[in-house]
Amino acid sequence: MYSKVEPYARGMLEVGDNQRIHWEASGNPNGKPACVFHGGPGAGSNPRWREDFDPSHWNLVLWDQRGSGRSTPPLSDPATSMEHNTTQHLVDDAEKLREHLGIDKWLLLGGSWGSTLVLAYAIAHPDRVSEIIIPAVTTSRPEEHAWITRGLGMFFPDYFEAFQNGVPEEDRDGNLALAYNKLLNSPDPRVREKAAWDWSKWDLSTITGGDNDFTGTRYEDPVERYRLARAVTHYWGNEGFLPPDYIFDNLHRLKGIPGVLIHGRNDFGGPLQTAWEVAKRWPDAELVILNDAGHVIAEGNSMDKAITAAIHRFR
Predict the structure, then answer these.
(1) Where are the domains of the chain?
(2) What is the pLDDT of residue 46?
(3) How confident is the model at residue 60 (pLDDT cuts 50, 70, 90)?
(4) What's the mean pLDDT in 197-219?
(5) pLDDT per position as a tens digit, 282-292
(6) What is the CA radius of gyration of the chain?
(7) Is 256 left (phi over 0), alpha (psi -120 to 50) or beta?
(8) With a threshold of 0.90, does the pTM exceed it?
(9) Which residues are catalytic?
C-alpha cells in the first residue's frame, strides 16, 4: 500500500551469549510502535513489511532473530553453536530490544513460526503488548510438528518417501526433524549440503501445497537453504523448546489484548484447527478464515489484504 521508506535508525544490539541481533526502525519515530517477528525459524526480517505500515503513522521495528538475517554469529556457519538459541532466548531478546528503543507498548505481528514467538512473548510480557496480528497461526505443539514432518505424507506420498529416505534407516520412524538436524551438523560438508537439499524439498512442498521447485525462491541459494534447514530442524526437533501445550495453557494471560488471527483454509502445513482452538481460548481475538488462501503471504493475495485490513483497524 505504501512506498517502502528507508529506516531512520538501525543497529546491532548485544543480547548476551556472544549474540548480536540486527534491528531497524522506519516510519514515524513518534508514531504508534509496531514490531514484526519473522518466521522460519531462521528466515530473517523482510523489508517488504514497510509497505504495509503507513510510515506517517507507525513506528515500525523489524529485527533478525539470533543467527538470522544480519544478526551474528550466523547460523549459516556450521561452527556457530545453537546452544543459546531457544524460544526463551528470543523472547528475552525482543524484550531487551523494546527496552533499548524506549518503547512502552507495541503492536506485534508474526506469522507461522513468528506466530508462536509473538504468542510466547505476549504471554511473558502482556503489559507490553497493545494488539496482536497473526497470519498462519502456529503454537509449536508436538502434534503440529508431527503433522508437518510426517502426517502430511498422506497428501504427498511421493515427496514424503524421498524426505524420509534422506535420513539413516534407523531414524526413519522417529523424530525426523532431529534426525535431519544431526545431519545438518555433520563435520562432512557433503552430508550437510544433501541434508539441506532434502529437507528443503519437503519444507517448500508443505508451504506451497505441493510445489517444491526451488527456482525463484530463497531455497535456490545454498547458504540460505542451509541456514533455514538448520534453524527449523533445531526448533521443531526440540518441540519449540516449550512444554507441549504451553501456548494454549497460557492464553488467559492475553485477556484484554485485542487480536486478529488470519488463517487460510487450504494451509497444508498449519491446519486451520490450531487457529480455531486459539480463538476459542482467546476471547479478545477475532478469527478471519480465508477460503482461498494457504500458508503463503504474497503481494495482493487474500492473506496480504487481510493483514493490511487488520493493521489499518489498529491504527
Answers:
(1) 9-139+243-313, 143-240
(2) 94
(3) very high
(4) 94
(5) 999 999 999 99
(6) 19
(7) left
(8) yes
(9) 112, 267, 295
Q: By the 8 A CB rule, do 264 and 295 touch?
A: yes
- Per the DSSP assignment, residues forming a β-bridge with 62 are 24, 36
What pLDDT sits at residue 299?
77
298 or 261, which is more confident? 261
What is the predicted pLDDT for the residue at 120? 98
Is the pLDDT score of 300 beyond 80? no
Looking at the domain that runs over 9-139+243-313, which CATH code has it been given? 3.40.50.1820
DSSP string, the chain: ----PPPSEEEEEEEETTEEEEEEEEE-TTSEEEEE---TTTT---GGGGGTS-TTTEEEEEEPPTTSTT-BS-TTSTTS--TT-SHHHHHHHHHHHHHHHT-S-EEEE--THHHHHHHHHHHH-GGGEEEEEEES-----HHHHHHHHTGGGGT-HHHHHHHHTTS-GGGTTS-HHHHHHHHHT-S-HHHHHHHHHHHHHHHHHHHHTS----TTSGGGSHHHHHHHHHHHHHHHHTGGGS-TTHHHHTGGGGTT--EEEEEETT-SSS-HHHHHHHHHH-TTEEEEEETT--S---TTSHHHHHHHHHHHHT-
Q: Give the chain's end-to-end CA distance (angstroms, integer).
A: 15
